[in-house]
Every structure is written in structure tokens, then in C-alpha cells.
């Protein structure tokens, strides 16, 4: 009697939320705590074998996410519901896996993505201690008009060599920015939302750090415009990592579903354009 062929592995995808404060970034690194390393170690414990988790983006140390998308393979008899329950029971309190479901065998969260959305939160001088670790509390309040005018210059395709750290030179430094806007939340924070096809290493933090300098008058809009045309890396001081959130990844079927940034401002499922806000 011929042996029964083994069933092939099933590819699963999921949306992941994590508090980045205690992680040395997403990507696995030796001897430090990372998001990828933590998820992989618990999956390997469950599946009794080596597991590699791929993600839509590699967030830096201290950066949070509510819309990170991941993928991994698992052999039957595991199913999505059992995987989700078991994995979340083993993960620490600062990681949560949502909407775990089967995907096509060729799906890749990074290469199949058509857009990523980040949000950055700037708090007023009166930001309390419980929220100070989640927003960038500024001593000076930026001018809203200057922020809005400067952000409009980001739209389109250009090199961000001067507003990033060297990362993947083989992919180049050009990114296409679809949205770059400032809105005010109900708590008085300023929320910067940026959507692009890809992001370079620390790009959002350098962009926000420079925009804030424009907003408080340390740089003028003309200087900001010149910086956007620079090819040589000459980044200013980056904004702190603690106030940056990866809030969504877009695929052919649309944006992945996630609850938004719950500690700051709830976001309904769906596109970022549906959120209640006040344009600055």
C-alpha cells in the first residue's frame, strides 16, 4: 500500500498590534528582544519546528504598530482559529495578533503591499505623564498653517535620501507619497498621517522632525523645499520613536483592518479618509 502523502503547509496571514517601547525594533536580532523574534519563538514552541515570520515593514526600536501585517506557514491539522487562540495565549501583553486567516501560498506582506500608512502624534506642552510616552510633547506649539503648507510639498514621487538613514541601497531612495496631512484629535494632539508606497529607514521621523522645525519657525518653508531636493544625506534631528505608529498596510483588496490607535484616538475599520477629524 502506497504511503499517504503528507499534506502541504498552509500559509497564514494576520494583522499584529504591538507596543514598541520594550522592543529593539521588529526585525530579529541576536541577544535583544524584537517583535519578530518573540512571535517566531512562540510559533516554534507551538509547531515544533523552525518558523519564519515575514512582515510588511520593519519598524525601528520604540515604534508601535496597530496595522502590521505578517505571514507564516503551518502544517495541518492546525487551523486559523486554533492558531490564533494558542498564539495569543503565549504572546506577552505587548503583542496581539488579530484577524489570523489563511492566505494564498504566494502572498507576501511586504512585496504585495501597495501602500503603508504611518501616524505620528505631537502633544501639547500640557501632555500628562500617562500619555507623554506615547506622543511627542513639545514645549512650543507649531503653527498649523506652516505645518500644512510644508506637508503639501511631500506629495508626489521623489528621493528621500536627505531624510533617511542608509538602508537598502539596491532599492533606491525614491518613494511616492500619496497623503501627508495634519489633523487635530479630540485630546488636542496634532496627528500627522502619511501614506506612501514605501518608506526608508527613519524617514517618517526625519520628516516629522523637520516639519516641526518649520512649524515653530526654526526653518522656513523654502529651506524645507530645498531639503526635499537634496540627494546627499543631510538629515536633521529625527522626531522621537515613541510617538510613531504603523497604522495600516494596503493590498489589492484594500487596507487591512485594525482598531486604530486606541490610547489616542479610535479609528474605524477601513480607509483613513473615513475618520472623524478636524483639518488643520
Could you please describe the fold and organization of this structure?
The chain is of the alpha+beta class. It has 2 domains: 10-102, Pseudouridine synthase I, catalytic domain, N-terminal subdomain (Alpha-Beta Plaits, 2-Layer Sandwich), CATH 3.30.70.580; 115-251, 2-Layer Sandwich (Alpha-Beta Plaits). It is built from 5 helices and 14 strands. The chain has helices at 35-47, 80-90, 144-152, 203-215, 221-229, and strands spanning 10-18, 54-55, 64-74, 95-102, 115-123, 136-137, 156-159, 174-184, 190-196, 244-251, 254-255, 260-261, 265-266, 278-279. Strands 1, 2, 3, 4, 5, 6, 7, 8, 9, 10, 11 and 14 form a 12-stranded mixed β-sheet that branches. The chain has a two-stranded antiparallel ribbon with strand order 12-13. Strand 12 (260-261) and strand 13 (265-266) form a beta hairpin. Helix 3 crosses helix 4. The chain starts with 9 loop residues before the first strand and ends with a strand. 39% of the residues are buried. Mean pLDDT is 89; it is low at 265-280.
Amino acid at each position: 500500500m502506497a504511503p499517504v502523502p503528507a499534506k502541504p503547509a498552509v500559509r497564514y496571514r494576520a494583522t499584529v498590534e504591538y507596543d514598541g517601547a520594550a522592543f529593539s525594533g521588529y526585525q530579529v536580532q541576536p541577544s535583544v528582544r524584537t517583535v519578530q523574534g518573540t512571535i517566531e519563538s512562540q510559533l516554534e514552541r507551538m509547531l515544533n519546528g523552525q518558523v519564519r515570520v515575514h512582515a510588511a515593514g520593519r519598524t525601528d526600536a520604540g515604534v508601535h504598530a496597530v496595522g502590521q501585517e505578517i505571514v507564516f506557514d503551518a502544517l495541518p491539522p492546525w487551523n486559523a482559529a486554533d492558531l490564533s487562540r494558542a498564539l495569543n495565549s503565549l504572546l506577552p501583553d505587548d503583542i496581539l495578533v488579530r484577524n489570523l486567516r489563511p492566505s494564498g501560498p504566494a502572498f507576501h506582506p511586504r512585496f504585495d503591499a501597495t501602500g503603508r500608512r504611518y501616524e505620528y502624534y505631537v502633544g501639547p506642552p500640557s501632555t500628562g505623564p500617562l500619555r507623554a510616552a506615547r506622543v511627542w510633547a513639545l514645549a512650543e506649539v507649531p503653527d498649523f498653517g506652516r505645518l500644512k503648507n510644508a506637508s503639501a510639498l511631500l506629495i508626489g514621487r521623489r528621493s528621500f535620501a536627505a531624510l533617511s538613514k542608509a538602508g537598502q541601497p539596491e532599492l533606491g531612495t525614491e518613494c511616492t507619497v500619496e497623503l501627508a496631512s495634519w489633523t487635530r484629535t479630540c485630546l488636542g494632539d496634532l496627528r500627522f498621517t502619511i501614506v506612501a508606497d514605501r518608506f526608508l529607514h527613519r524617514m517618517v521621523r526625519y520628516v516629522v522632525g523637520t516639519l516641526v522645525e518649520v512649524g515653530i519657525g526654526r526653518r522656513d518653508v523654502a529651506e524645507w523645499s530645498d531639503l526635499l531636493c537634496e540627494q546627499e544625506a543631510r538629515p536633521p534631528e529625527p522626531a522621537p520613536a515613541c510617538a510613531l505608529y504603523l497604522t495600516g498596510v494596503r493590498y489589492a483588496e484594500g487596507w487591512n483592518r485594525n482598531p486604530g490607535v486606541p490610547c489616542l484616538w479610535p479609528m474605524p475599520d477601513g480607509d483613513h479618509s473615513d475618520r472623524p477629524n478636524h483639518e488643520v
